[in-house]
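Table S5 (text form). Sequence records supplied for joint modeling of the two-component complex.
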Amino acid sequence: DQQVKQNSPSLSVQEGRISILNCDYTNSMFDYFLWYKKYPAEGPTFLISISSIKDKNEDGRFTVFLNKSAKHLSLHIVPSQPGDSAVYFCAASSKAAGNKLTFGGGTRVLVKP
Amino acid sequence: GAGVSQSPSNKVTEKGKDVELRCDPISGHTALYWYRQRLGQGLEFLIYFQGNSAPDKSGLPSDRFSAERTGESVSTLTIQRTQQEDSAVYLCASSLDRVVGTQYFGPGTRLLVL
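The corresponding structure-token record, covering 227 residues in total, follows.
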């Protein structure tokens, strides 16, 4: 049973436009959510996170939105740049479970120049 | 180094052999996690260590998998009698502690079992 789902396996966007990545979860115990970016042959790189007590967190071009009632979060990248082309993973954790991360399946983003 | 390091970067082995993968966490990070990513899939949690507490082994897929950690430093993940389905990228991550803290990942070890 997948507790964290990214329903879009891929996304193509024009440089300069907004990229919106979505993630749904089922476990109401999750209290911390993260987005990681992964290039081929590298480990995931932390991008941005949000605590369950907030509904928005912004860091430069990256904004994460959390809708707890819908158990949904999204990552907005604006403006998108060619260097943003990578696989993006949504992850969730709970303090009660030692903060081990449960990952979604990833969304491959391609930013076209 | 400043980041999490893992070795070897690549490992090819024959079915039935044992393999040992190593992780050096970021200095000062008390929590250490192992994950794996099979081809085309997301990352799966395997095991985590926090200081001297008993490790959480709930993600280990079988008793062929084991891991150790020496204090708050190096960890090794051992897979005995490897099977082809063990082929994956094995990723290690560390964080300041298990209660709060973003996990920082190493580059991974790509394991191929023939």
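Note: The radius of gyration of chain B is 13 Å.
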